[in-house]
Design goal:
Layout (H helix, E strand, L loop, with lengths): L6 E4 L3 H12 L4 E4 L3 H20 L5 H9 L1 E4 L10 E4 L5 H14 L5 E4 L6 H6 L7 E6 L8 E6 L5 H13 L3 E4 L8 H17 L5 H12 L5 H8 L1 H15 L8 H8 L23
Parallel strand pairs: 1-2, 1-4, 2-3, 4-5, 5-6, 7-8
Antiparallel strand pairs: 6-7
Helix pairs in contact: 1-2, 9-10, 10-11
């Protein structure tokens, strides 16, 4: 299959920046979009820093990095996403906000442009219904950190055409990722387990059972996880974990998915994780993971 003119990534947070790295590294011209120009600029800086580390580690040459970054652009103007063959949305977990974004994108993109959402908890069918092209809409949930993890949960909505899903699957593989198919169910596969699990870890801290670093050490040492739950929460962002809790608990009413009070207190104190350099753990800087 011929690669599209470009892949667009809407949302320049931790997840969006990681997805943009994946798309660009896969050889696609990549356009990053965010309403805040400062976030666009920060994402481009983080991408450059990540690829600079790739050169230092011998994974890429400087010539390759120059070619990759030469095909990356950023914008805060929705209309400049029009050339994209695939646009992956990676903004915060709020149905109405995602819907408004896709309405704007639908107005400027051609009929062949595929839309995808990186949502990890919301219904693909419900988001697609607001997009104006629910037959050309798929779920593409990249694992965090996207630039290091290969797995992508891919979910069709009820009205997604088989042709659109097959095309999105092919593009995912062309980016060097490993797609797995899931149905449009709350949390899909990973967050069905992960959101309650991470909440359980927060409650251990809340109840004074163990310190965050000790919990991570136990989980990594005994269960073989590459990253502990407190590290992962800090990477995701504690404010994002609240949104994940609210989305999953609102649909499933699973008690373990309910937001722990400690999480809300930490967000109120602006202890959001890596992006504010302090969450359950402390960090020297807020550079993208892997850079």
């Amino acid at each position: 299959m011929t690669k599209p003119l470009s892949i667009g990534v809407a949302g320049c947070g931790t997840m969006g920046t990681g997805i943009a790295i994946v798309a660009a590294r896969g050889g696609f011209p990549t356009i990053l979009f965010d309403l805040d120009p400062k976030r666009v600029d920060a994402a481009l800086v983080q991408m450059a820093a990540f690829f600079a580390k790739s050169v230092q580690r011998g994974k890429l040459t400087q010539i390759q990095v120059d070619e990759i970054m030469g095909q990356v652009t950023g914008t805060s103007v929705v209309a400049e996403m029009a050339p994209c063959g695939l646009i992956i949305e990676a903004i915060f977990e709020e149905l109405e906000a995602k819907g408004r974004l896709f309405v704007e994108l639908d107005a400027v993109c051609g009929p062949d442009t595929l839309f995808a959402s990186n949502t990890s908890t919301l219904s693909i069918t419900e988001i697609a219904a607001k997009s104006g092209r629910d037959d050309r809409f798929v779920g593409m949930h990249f694992c965090l950190p996207a630039q290091l993890m290969k797995l992508v949960e891919m979910s069709p909505g009820l009205n997604t055409s088989p042709e659109s899903f097959a095309r999105a699957w092919d593009l995912c593989e062309q980016m060097g990722q490993r797609p797995v198919k899931t149905q449009d169910a709350p949390g899909f596969i990973l967050n069905y387990f992960l959101v309650p699990f991470n909440n359980d870890a927060i409650r251990l801290v809340e109840d004074g059972v163990a310190e965050p670093a000790e919990i991570d050490a136990a989980i990594k040492g005994a269960l073989g996880y590459a990253m502990g739950p407190m590290e992962l929460l800090d990477l995701v962002g504690l404010d994002t974990q609240i949104l994940l809790c609210e989305a999953l608990h609102g649909i499933t009413h699973e008690p373990r998915a309910a937001c722990p009070p400690l999480l809300r207190r930490m967000v109120a104190a602006r202890r959001l994780g890596r992006k504010t350099e302090r969450g359950f753990l402390s960090y020297a800087n807020s550079a993208i993971f892997g850079a």
